[in-house]
Automatic annotation (TrEMBL):
PANTHER family: ACYL-COENZYME A DEHYDROGENASE (PTHR48083:SF33), MEDIUM-CHAIN SPECIFIC ACYL-COA DEHYDROGENASE, MITOCHONDRIAL-RELATED (PTHR48083)
Species for this entry: Pseudoalteromonas obscura
InterPro entries reported for this sequence: Acyl-CoA_dehydrogenase, Acyl-CoA_Oxase/DH_mid-dom, Acyl-CoA_Oxase/DH_mid-dom_sf, AcylCo_DH-like_C, AcylCo_DH/oxidase_C, AcylCoA_DH/ox_N, AcylCoA_DH/ox_N_sf, AcylCoA_DH/oxidase_NM_dom_sf
Protein name (database record): Acyl-coenzyme A dehydrogenase
Catalytic reaction(s) noted: a long-chain 2,3-saturated fatty acyl-CoA + oxidized [electron-transfer flavoprotein] + H(+) = a long-chain (2E)-enoyl-CoA + reduced [electron-transfer flavoprotein]; a medium-chain 2,3-saturated fatty acyl-CoA + oxidized [electron-transfer flavoprotein] + H(+) = a medium-chain (2E)-enoyl-CoA + reduced [electron-transfer flavoprotein]
Amino acid sequence: MSLRTQLRKILPSISVTEQEALDAGDVWLEGSIYQGKPDFSALRAVTEAKLSADEQAFLDGPVKELMAMIDENHIQNSKHLPEHILEFLKKERFFSLIIPKQYGGLEFSPYANSTIVGTIATKSSAVAVTVMVPNSLGPGELLLHYGTAEQQAHYLPRLANGRDIPCFALTSPEAGSDAGGIPDQGIVTKGMFEGKEVLGLEVTWDKRYITLAPIATVLGLAFKVFDPNGLLGGKESLGITCALIPKSHPGVELGNRHDPMGIRFYNGTTRGNKVFIPMDFIIGGQENIGRGWQMLVSCLGAGRGISLPALGVSTSQVALKSASEYAAVREQFGLAIGQFEGIQEKLADIAGKAFLQESMRVLTTEGLGMGLKPSVVTAIAKYHMTELGRDVLDSAMDILAGKAIQTGPQNTLASGYVAQPIAITVEGANILTRNLMIFGQGVMRCHPYLQTMVESIHSEEANADKEFNKILRKTVGYSIGNGFRAFKLGAFPFMASGSSSLPEVVQYEKAAQQLASKLAVYADFSLLVLGGKLKQAELLSARLGDVMSFVYAAMASIRYYEQKVSQQDRAQAAPYFHYATRYALMEAEKALHKFLDNFPSKAARRFMRIATMNFSHRMPKISDDMIRELAKAAQLDTDFKQQLTHLVKPTEGDGHDINEQAYKAKMGCLESLAKVKKSLKKREIKAGVSFGDTLNNAFVANIINEQEYVKLVDYNRKREKAIRVDEFDFDLNLIQDSKEVDSVKSVVNQ
């Protein structure tokens, strides 16, 4: 019995849905990481993402106007998204970011799409989700890639100008993460449409969690097609199919809503029982029956890298801006809380991860902008960027403490905090994405021979044994090469290569090379020892996926520092860069050790350690000094910090504006504040009961002059406003405090 025959009995074949998922998408930078040789030349050759003149004008015009219109507190205390917001989104074509100009759309880049969604999300999660869905997985994108010319000509202009609002229904009560198991079905039959008997489908469906469904005018629908009477002349089970059905079509049920954590975007159900639709309703026409899963996976693979990662980035930037400004102006025990090391530890983590988030956002959308659809990279972006968003938001909540939990117009964190779990669950729940998708797809997509080998194992061709042996020889050679490289870099880490022109970057290039070389060996041994069981060993495969993910994150951090940080801002950015890159590399190394510690074969575990010389943690560490340095940098009003929080656009009177005014007022009078505090230490003046009294004492004692006094009083007034929280009457009606107390005493005029 040949080896191929033996393996055929052991290894499961690739299912149709798995094969379609593997075929739908491109291999990009993650391929070089998996194979143990991160390609930094390809990284530096990526086309830099920049906003076009039209895209910048849209941000400066309609987006800015929208931000001023949004009252998130009002939205969250209402039942519906305000009608004037919806009408504005339609009029300004917010639903047409991906639709070509020839159909009346804006045709923006993935980078611009991400920037727009992320900017809106800093103000309102509900409005951001409303904008993002039509520009992500949905009828618009499916029509662009797969629709007939007639479907495109009819629907795309209507979607572009808002006459039609789309939704796409995939998830069923019985099929969530296992989208391929949807029970909804369409039976090929003949029926009446527009007074004529035509060939079509009798469709029955029950869907939930469908965003925009309650207000949609056109329904995208995924279901399985069956042809029991052989009307199409082929097999009975034809596979998943996508159709586009007007809401007005008889039998379509839309309108019932869910209530997702009280975030007021429209999300709900759609149902239909034996609804007859003509073949013309199928996206792409009758010939696309059964191609629905391939269509969905292809489109989702790209869209997954834009919208939800943008929500994660917006969360990080809001957290960084809010926490750093609050830490600078909020004082306890006579010190700004940002000077306490407990706060600094949290603040540094927020700042470093915000840098990592923005780096990953930029690199991922740059890849998509090149026309690629890297399904593994977008899964990495979706999982890790939403999880990082959750991490930093938790830290920001800790820093703002009581201010963070009192909802109202001045709270900058509450809406994002409540909405964050939504990003974790949609477009593939995060547990599924990490444990099954990242490495599960990566191992088949990124290994140079594995997919071909599996296909040859299950092949019925006469020369299958010969082809298998040929591939096997290549695979063995590939694995031996991986082993030699990993041993060399493990025993002699200085031999790793680094080509950056910046000395501070080279160490991280070398570290990424060392980690990836070990990953390649461990992946090979996992396949050799566990074989098809690796698919069920989710804890192990997830850790290998984490290595891929965090090496990709480190590469993104390096690219951002080299490409997006100007030479004059590099010193300001350095603390952020070092923390972010070291965090990513440390997490990758931690995942490698957890993988080894838990590998089921003791002999294989010992061999892998020796083969890669992996006995200790070697990655550059995050020291306490680094934490203190970054926390201090995060509290400074620098050009780079503004760059890293660019998605946050304060509008007059909102929470961000109130915080920023107090923060900038303090930054403008630091020297005067130092004078006052120095005089207090020397007992030249007495501390007042309030800070305002202390300023009066300092002015009377000529410690500060009149100009300094006025600036300090202005700062104190803005500080008091920034640290207060919204309050309500007994029936929770917001009290509008229009009578601000003027802290400027008559001393100035004495």
